[in-house]
Amino acid sequence: MTLSTASFEAVTAMFARVSGIRLSPAKKPLVEGRLQRMAQDAGHARLDDYVHALLEAADPKELTRVVDKLTTNETYFFREPEHFDHLRQLLRDQPPDGPLRVWSAASSSGEEAFSIAMLLAEELGRRDWSVIGTDLSTAVVQQAQRALYPMERARNLPQALLKRYCLRGEGDYAGQLLIQRALRERVSFRCANLMQEMPRDLGQFDIIFLRNVLIYFDPPGKARIVRRVLAHLKPDGLLYTGHAESLANLELPVRSVAPAVYTHGG
Ligand SMILES: C[S@@+](CC[C@H](N)C(=O)[O-])C[C@H]1O[C@@H](n2cnc3c(N)ncnc32)[C@H](O)[C@@H]1O
């Protein structure tokens, strides 16, 4: 099934309004692939008919499902391990003297937030720390809340952490791992769109991970998101961005303290 140029533009305009992400014409095959199943499920033999009906009905639930489908949620445990090494060293050099709050903005299905949680559990044990993950996509937020992953996702997880913080599924759950309850209790997930004001009660963080999401935005969009996120970073807090996502040339009030690690200043 293929999309006409007009339908592609209409559906990607809706996606851009919601997410802020502009999908270029080169992404047309990807969009066609991702919408195929939804069109079939809705009883349409042609993708164009599905998009037409979707935009005309503007049913919030179906629009959310389409936005969920069009976001790229790739993530894995301990992705870009240099950041975890950096954070571990920081906690050893300057152990926090109060509660430590960490935000995984654009947390996808939760692997990043749980990797941070494992590191904090190792370094801070039962001291006061917590992690919150947020994402635009309700589908991945729900996955993160389940904290249940196919076992093959554990390939980047050191064996010791796998043993200590994950339960091996049995019976119906064979082949899956569940994050251990004590860790789950310290990590929460909710929906938040980085293109909009953040929830009022989000609060301030010592550490923010904003990784592998800025790449989808143009420079003004990136700058707006980083400013919005910085409003939630404590004065001495640290912001981690993806290693492919330089903040140079965006004229932001930050200074670099390590590769893809920033603090207020500049
Ligand atoms: C590639 S994943 C990155 C996940 C994780 N941070 C990592 O580095 O592995 C990008 C995530 O950004 C989310 N996202 C895209 N646009 C967003 C927006 N406007 N607000 C919040 N999250 C957004 C997507 O839903 C997706 O889960």
From TrEMBL:
GO BP term, pick one: methylation
Organism the protein comes from: Leptothrix cholodnii (strain ATCC 51168 / LMG 8142 / SP-6) (Leptothrix discophora (strain SP-6))
Keywords of this entry: Methyltransferase, S-adenosyl-L-methionine, Transferase
Record-level Gene Ontology MF annotations: protein-glutamate O-methyltransferase activity
The keyword rRNA processing is annotated on this UniProt entry: no
Pfam families given in the database record: CheR, CheR_N
Catalysed conversion reaction: L-glutamyl-[protein] + S-adenosyl-L-methionine = [protein]-L-glutamate 5-O-methyl ester + S-adenosyl-L-homocysteine
Keyword Transferase among UniProt keywords: yes
Enzyme Commission no: 2.1.1.80
Stated role: Methylation of the membrane-bound methyl-accepting chemotaxis proteins (MCP) to form gamma-glutamyl methyl ester residues in MCP.
Protein's recorded name: Chemotaxis protein methyltransferase
Residue positions binding S-adenosyl-L-methionine: N73, T75, R79, E112, D135, N193, L194, R211, N212
Domain CheR-type methyltransferase residues, every copy: 1-266
